[in-house]
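Task 17 of the worksheet. Students: predict the tertiary structure of the chain below and write it out as structure tokens. Keep your answer in the requested format; marks are given for formatting as well as content.
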Amino acid sequence: MRCEITEFQQEQKKRMRSVQDAMDALNGKWKVAIISSICCYKKRRFSDILNDIEGISNRMLSKELKELETNQLVKRTVLDTQPISVQYELTEHGNTLQTIISELSGWGIVHRKKIVGK
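Model answer:
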């Protein structure tokens, strides 16, 4: 019986570590919104993302996009245009977040109705 409890506790610790790993990759006020913007349109220019997300600054968007690139969730492509523009899309790994984004969106709609009534 003691062994089963220890195994359960170890499994729970492992699960909590994996949740923390996920939260570390998506932490901050803006990352989920950025991913959501790109998810919705598949490919997004910097200025489009900036317009999609109310309240984010150029500097913060740039910082968050770099962190998402570091975590291999977003791919940055410099387009050969005049003036030069940059396009972002989810990586194959980033695309695995689409289900989570969809679930969060659905939950957010229900939550808003429950709390605000709209």
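Marker's comment: The chain is about 65% helix and 15% strand. Strands lie at 43-45, 74-79, 85-90.
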